[in-house]
Amino acid sequence: MDKREFWTTKSKLAEYHAVVFEHPAFEAPFRLVANQFQPVTLAGALHTPVPMDLRAPEQKRGSQPKLQLAFPRPVVGREFKRQLRRISAAGSRAPIAVTYAVYLGNTDAPQVTWQLYAAEAGGVTFSGDQVQVTATDNNPMRRSAAEIYDPNIFTGLQLL
């Protein structure tokens, strides 16, 4: 096999793109697999087949990983809304963890995995016909915040 044939030949191994949404308020992780016709067991967990438009994170040095997904609203919209209501009812500020994994041939372990978080602004949006999710590697819970005032440590205001 020469170089040209190698680079123009598609792999014969089965390829699965799995997305898992997790949050403490969810009943269970929300597991989806892209563009399959039947449920698929990946890494020991059953994934629901969903038609999805997927833009994988870039693998360039220095670029921030950004995953963009779009699902048909009639397929997953109701379940997404139900799970998002659980988050708001719990009053949780924890981010939605999004795990994107690519399985190539072997369904026991992924070839590539990204641990991302739903973006704080516009992370999950609903339109008339689709649900869009944008995930980045910025964990909103780790953003810098000012120190909390403690009069035992900062004694300057005791004289007032």
Helix-strand layout with pairing:
Elements: H1 3-8, E1 15-22, E2 30-34, E3 40-42, E4 45-50, E5 53-55, E6 66-72, H2 73-90, E7 97-104, E8 112-118, E9 124-126, E10 130-136
Parallel strand pairs: 2-4
Antiparallel strand pairs: 1-2, 1-7, 3-4, 5-6, 6-10, 7-8, 8-10, 9-10
Description:
With 160 residues, this protein is an alpha+beta fold. It has helices at residues 3-8, 73-90, and strands at 15-22, 30-34, 40-42, 45-50, 53-55, 66-72, 97-104, 112-118, 124-126, 130-136. The mean pLDDT is 83.
In short:
The protein has helices spanning 3-8, 73-90; strands at residues 15-22, 30-34, 40-42, 45-50, 53-55, 66-72, 97-104, 112-118, 124-126, 130-136. The chain is an alpha+beta fold and 160 residues long.
Under the CATH scheme, which class? Mainly Beta
> CATH topology, anyone?
Thrombin, subunit H
Distance between the termini: 83 Å
Content of β-strand? 35-45%
Overall morphology: extended
Q: How many DSSP-defined strands?
A: 10
Task: Give start-end ranges of low-pLDDT stretches.
Answer: none
* Main sheet attributes: strand count, strand direction, barrel closure: 10 strands, mixed
What is the string of SSEs from the N terminus onward?
Answer: HEEEEEEHEEEE
Structural class: alpha+beta
- Mean pLDDT reading: 83
Q: Over all CA atoms, what is the radius of gyration?
A: 21 Å
How many alpha or pi helices? Answer: 2
CATH architecture: Beta Barrel
Tally of distinct domains: 1
Helix share, percent: 10-25%
What tags apply to this protein structure?
single chain; 160 residues; alpha+beta; Thrombin, subunit H; ten-stranded mixed sheet; 2 helices; 15% helix; extended
